[in-house]
């Protein structure tokens, strides 16, 4: 039994065959999937999916790359969506300095809006008692600086973690977790492989970030939740342990973090 803790199941990439994709996940032992919202419309669809499939859960949030399109009352929308008992976290939220506006003159305002929405959504997490799914790309110091304002009040998972063991330990010391995608299977991913090999067994989860980041040998193809198994198998090999051990421990960590059955 495995949990894909980060899938974009609502994306149009899955419109033609979503039910088959979910069936293949079950066949591969991926018994639960968390569908991650990135905008208001995507968060709404994630909640709809979670309400229609008993093994799917949802998060709601505005992705840092989507802040320019977010409505003024985004937080009210998210608060409303989070009333569903199928919503298990706020996310994905954070800072992304990799995909900044092309015009350098637009960059400062975009970064400021990213930080504002990140803080507002972390505040919403505190209000609702939900954990957060964190996206950071090329924004390590600023992401940690914002999160430090919330230490002890919100737990986050640094999804698609690609950093060093020292960086992983830095976020773990603040009460957060990390999770690994199919990147861990890529030939040139030595750094994250070393991290996945040595990190404490109870401090990480597994995910696909599908439709992106298909693990080797399907790199570049559409990824789907069934591939979580390959991520877990690869980590098991790195750590010289069994798939069952990785599956059992990461599932336990995910259940504790997302607390599927809310009161
Ligand atoms: Zn992300
Ligand atoms: Zn994502």
Word description of this protein:
The structure is a single chain. With 263 residues, this protein is an alpha/beta fold. The protein has one domain: TIM Barrel. Helix content is 41%, strand content 17%. It has 9 helices and 8 strands. It has an 8-stranded parallel sheet. One zinc ion (ZN) binds next to loops. One zinc ion binds next to loops.
Content-based structural category: alpha/beta
Strand order within the widest beta sheet: 1-2-3-4-5-6-7-8
Annotated CATH architecture: Alpha-Beta Barrel
- Beta strands, count: 8
Enumerate how many helices there are, as a single number: 9
Order of helices and strands: EHEHEHEHEHEHEHEHH
What best-fitting shape do the alpha-carbon axes yield?
A: globular
Number of structural domains: 1
Mean pLDDT: 96
The H-level CATH homologous superfamily, spelled out, is Metal-dependent hydrolases
Largest sheet: 8 strands, parallel
What oligomeric state do these chains adopt?
Answer: single chain
Strand content: 15-25%
| Low-pLDDT segments, ≥5 res | none
Q: In angstroms, what separates the terminal alpha carbons? A: 24 Å
> Do you know the CATH topology?
TIM Barrel
* The level-1 CATH class: Alpha Beta
């Amino acid at each position: 039994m495995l949990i894909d803790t980060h899938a974009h199941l609502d994306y149009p990439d899955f419109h033609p065959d979503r039910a088959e994709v979910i069936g293949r996940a079950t066949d591969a032992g991926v018994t639960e999937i968390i569908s991650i919202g990135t905008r208001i419309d995507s968060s709404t669809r994630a909640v709809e999916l979670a309400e229609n499939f008993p093994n799917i859960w949802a998060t709601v949030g505005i992705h840092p790359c989507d802040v320019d399109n977010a409505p003024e009352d985004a937080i009210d929308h998210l608060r409303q969506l989070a009333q569903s008992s199928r919503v298990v976290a706020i996310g994905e939220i954070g800072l992304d300095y990799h995909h900044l506006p092309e015009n350098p003159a637009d960059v400062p305002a975009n970064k400021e809006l990213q930080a504002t929405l990140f803080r507002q959504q972390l505040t919403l997490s505190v209000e609702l008692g939900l954990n957060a799914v964190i996206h950071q790309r090329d924004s390590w110091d600023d992401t940690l600086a914002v999160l430090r304002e919330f230490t002890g009040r919100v737990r986050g998972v640094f999804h698609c973690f690609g950093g060093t063991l020292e960086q992983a330990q830095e976020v773990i010391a603040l009460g957060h977790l990390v999770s690994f995608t199919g990147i861990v299977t890529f030939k040139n991913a030595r750094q994250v492989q070393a991290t996945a090999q040595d990190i404490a067994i109870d401090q990480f989860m597994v995910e696909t970030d599908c439709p992106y980041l298909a693990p080797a040998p399907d790199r570049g193809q559409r990824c789907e939740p069934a591939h979580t198994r390959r991520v877990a198998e690869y980590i098991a090999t790195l750590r010289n342990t069994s798939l069952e051990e990785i599956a059992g421990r990461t599932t336990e960590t995910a259940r504790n973090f997302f607390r599927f059955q809310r009161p």
